[in-house]
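Researcher: Let's do a round of design. I'm pasting the structure tokens now; please hold your answer until I've finished.
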């Protein structure tokens, strides 16, 4: 069937809107990420780079065809922090190629955006975040060394900081966006009360844990476990996102458990905390969801088996039809 010019025009307009929406979201996430920065070996980096998470989520939702929106978003972010140079175009390529490769690898292993299986969580961690983001960080830090803006001896510390920041964007932001895209089920009143209670406790405990001079960051893990057990991935990832933002604010302000530390120590402590917290929230929620889905499948199969057995039993107990030939009269 050949499409009409009107339908082709609508598809083109829809595609243009999607590309522009991706570019705007990427740019907005980039502006948010640039609000808090750390310095390692003279190079400035962001502990969490949200645009990588936005880019991977958009590619998984809309498809690979919206990659020009990512490139446009990268270009807009670069124009706000520096003048555009020929080498800047290589940065655009690297920051576009990394999420595209992440999407391709996730598709290759049968990734499902509902993150209802443990294998999906592992794929997002090890393929979408840790492996794919090697591309953008490697190209970015390599350009700094090539342009004499960074000493070659400082390559690996800066590369590690850049890589972890990009990976954290995928680990924290991508699951939240995928969940918002698929959000359909509403909570019952009792669950709403529990959700509000959990949120209030998080608002009280997380700032205390991230800004207290006593190192009590471990207090956030019971909240993550509570959120994962009761609200699965949605609760645990929102809790992890809030905690990560608060920890980043504390680290960049050099307060609480990040006070009196060197810049490298701050970077290591913050990224280790954010990474383990995001992994705990994502993988624990995936395990819980997978087990609950398996239980529902088993319960559904048992119910169907019971119905079949009841039907067969009813058929066996049915009285036999009357046969006049078997009840002959005596002559």
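Researcher: That's everything. Go ahead.
Model: Designed sequence:
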């Amino acid at each position: 069937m050949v499409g009409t010019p009107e339908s082709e025009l609508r598809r083109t307009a829809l595609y243009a809107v999607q590309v522009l929406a991706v570019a705007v979201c990427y740019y907005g996430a980039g502006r948010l990420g640039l609000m808090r920065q750390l310095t390692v070996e003279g190079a400035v980096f962001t502990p969490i780079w949200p645009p990588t998470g936005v880019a991977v989520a958009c590619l998984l939702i809309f498809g690979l065809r919206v990659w020009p929106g990512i490139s446009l978003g990268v270009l807009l972010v670069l124009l706000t922090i520096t003048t555009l140079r020929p080498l800047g175009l290589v940065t655009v390529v690297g920051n576009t190629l990394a999420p595209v490769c992440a999407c391709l690898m996730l598709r290759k292993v049968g990734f499902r955006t509902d993150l209802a299986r443990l294998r999906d969580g592992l794929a997002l961690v090890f393929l979408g975040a840790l492996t794919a983001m090697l591309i953008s960080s490697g190209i970015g830090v390599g350009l700094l060394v090539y342009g004499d803006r960074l000493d070659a001896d400082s390559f690996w510390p800066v590369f590690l900081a850049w890589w972890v920041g990009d990976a954290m964007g995928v680990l924290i932001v991508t699951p939240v966006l995928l969940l918002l895209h698929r959000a359909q089920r509403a909570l019952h009143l009792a669950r709403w009360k529990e959700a509000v209670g959990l949120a209030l406790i998080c608002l009280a405990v997380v700032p205390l844990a991230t800004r207290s001079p006593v190192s009590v960051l471990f207090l956030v893990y019971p909240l993550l476990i509570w959120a994962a057990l009761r609200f699965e991935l949605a609760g645990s990832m929102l809790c992890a996102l809030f905690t990560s933002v608060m920890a980043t604010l504390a680290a960049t302000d050099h307060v609480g458990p990040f006070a009196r530390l060197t810049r490298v120590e701050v970077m290591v402590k913050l990224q280790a905390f954010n990474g383990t917290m995001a992994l705990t929230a994502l993988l624990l929620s995936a395990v819980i969801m997978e087990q609950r889905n398996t239980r529902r499948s088993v319960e559904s199969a048992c119910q169907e088996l019971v119905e079949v057995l009841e039907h067969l039993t009813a058929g066996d107990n049915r009285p036999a039809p009357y046969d006049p030939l078997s009840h002959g009269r005596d002559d």
